[in-house]
Amino acid sequence: MTKKALVIGASGLVGSSLSRLLFDDETYDKIHILVRKSTNWIHDKLVEHVIDFEQLPFSSGIFQVDSIFCCLGTTINKAKTKEAFYRVDHDYVLDAGKLTAENNAKFLVISSMGANPKSMFFYSRVKGEMEQDLQKLKLPSLHIFRPSLLLGDRSEFRLSERLAAPFSRWFLKGPLKKYKPNQAQSVAQAMIHVSKEETLGFHIYDSTQIEKIAKRTEVTPKS
Q1: Does residue 222 lie within any of the structural domains?
Q2: Are 70 and 107 in contact (CB under 8 A)?
Q3: In a domain, 221, yes or no
Q4: Domain range spanning residue 21?
Q5: For residue range 171-204, what is the model confidence (pLDDT) as tens digits?
Q6: For 42, left (φ over 0), alpha (ψ -120 to 50), or beta?
Q7: How many domains does the chain have?
Q8: 22: in domain
Q9: Reduced to 3 states, what is the DSSP secondary structure of residue 120?
Q10: Is 223 among the domain residues?
Q11: What is the CATH number of the domain that holds 83?
Q12: Model confidence pTM above 0.70
């Protein structure tokens, strides 16, 4: 039996990897994506929805799928203000979670290592509040992925990522292994694998668990 998937934030680092892997996955026969502007992708499985995310609460029909992958996220630099950052990384994600609950679908979302609603760091606190508020929705199947620093092919240059790769190979070992950066494709592979499992309830996957799951399902997209 084939299924339908929805990727929210499909043009981002993890979202684009995840979408392309789903195109080649026989489990899913329709891949809906929600984006701010068209990706110009062409694929038989693809159904693209270009929306204003402020209107997300009125998009219930799009959420009538089996699995929803939420890859939304921004940075303070891009958002410009803390309020705008919170809107994307908390409010939009929570809106998506509410629509998922209405449609009784599986919700898989990217958070971050160190997410904690009581953190002294704004970024980690927002991620923690997002996780906490999603849990209150009583989703039938909620899966939260907490990667470390994400690596991959971005459109913009990020010095921290360029420096992290060689540093992690030499110094992040043993008990520090959980701080090693995650490749975006590894996160995408882990999310897809978990989406196929008949697992109910609330689950969190840290960076090392993400890598273990990804290694079991390593696939290179054809598209």
Answers
A1: no
A2: yes
A3: no
A4: 3-216
A5: 445 554 555 788 899 999 999 999 999 889 999 9
A6: beta
A7: 1
A8: yes
A9: coil
A10: no
A11: 3.40.50.720
A12: yes
